[in-house]
Amino acid sequence: MIQSDVARALAALPVSLDPKYSVATKALYAPLLAGAQEGVTSTLDVAYGPHARQKLDVYSVAGTTPSAIVIYVPGGGFTGGDKRSDNVMFGNIGSYFARRGMLGVTMNYRLSPEVAWPAGAEDIDAAVTWVKANAASYGADANRIIVFGHSAGASHGASFLFDPALRGDTKVAGGGLVSGAAYALPSDMSAAPPNVRAYFGSDNGAVARRSAISHVGGTKIPVLLAVAEHDPGVLVTPTLALAAALTQRDGRCPPLMRLEGHNHFSPPCSLGTSDDVLGGAIVRFIKGLA
């Protein structure tokens, strides 16, 4: 459970996506993650493609046989974000899964305005291809890969998992999507925020094609969904819509979490702290996969 002092500090921050609150949130968590990467071997900035942003970090524990591979896709509003913004975030995530008998991978992807849809999902596809090709060198099973994305990273993850042009649902075992920003695009893209238009474009005629939620029905991939208590409503409603689409697909509700006490930026920061609500749920979800 989230520490009471951290929960109070997060609740005192505005419900906002302003990057300065990401900085403030990470400052709260950094002291809680001291030692989170001890005993973990990290291989940093491995190229999975030719672009400078197409790099990933791999986290493992010597002497273990990883039971699964978790690929973390960070957020950043489609125009920013980084797999290793400092010496703590988000090495805490790769290390968290490595310490639990898995292979942890964190990845970067190309950003708008240099690239547009579906570049982020294509980069996940390329990273998955690299991981599959190299899994054996880490003793890991290439058939047990889980894509775990947060914010814009969750939006890219949803596109990868559901879009029929990529068919990520056939390439990985499951997905974890936390506070995704654009599973379903507005019918009038002029109403979308500038960063969303920069990535997805302004063509109203392309909205259905570019909305990951449009393609859920053609898949069977298991997916865990989560939102934060202090997420803005514009991030909560797409998750609920995606949950409804998955419920219609499966005839039952998917794993769906409301992360109590958290703001938009804090869930990925919590992995490796005493707050094991999100991390523990992902581990249980992975263990439950066929």
Structure description:
This protein is an alpha/beta fold. The protein has a single domain (4-33, 43-287), classed as Alpha/Beta hydrolase fold, catalytic domain (Rossmann fold), CATH 3.40.50. The protein is built from 10 helices and 8 strands. The chain has an 8-stranded mixed beta sheet, with helices on both faces. Strand 3 (69-73), helix 3 and strand 4 form a beta-alpha-beta unit. Helix 4 packs across helix 5.
- Compressed to H and E, one letter per element, the order equals HHEEEHEHEHEHHEHEHH
The tally of strands reads 8
- Give the end-to-end Cα distance, rounded to a whole number of Å: 28 Å
- Percent of residues in helices: 25-40%
CATH-defined superfamily? Alpha/Beta hydrolase fold, catalytic domain
* Cα gyration radius (Å): 17 Å
Which structural traits does this protein have?
alpha/beta, 10 helices, 35% helix, 17% strand, globular
Write the layout of secondary structure elements.
Layout: H1 4-12, H2 19-29, E1 41-47, E2 55-60, E3 69-73, H3 91-99, E4 103-107, H4 119-134, E5 145-150, H5 152-162, E6 174-178, H6 194-200, H7 207-210, E7 223-230, H8 233-250, E8 256-263, H9 266-270, H10 277-287
Parallel strand pairs: 3-4, 3-5, 5-6, 6-7, 7-8
Antiparallel strand pairs: 1-2, 2-4
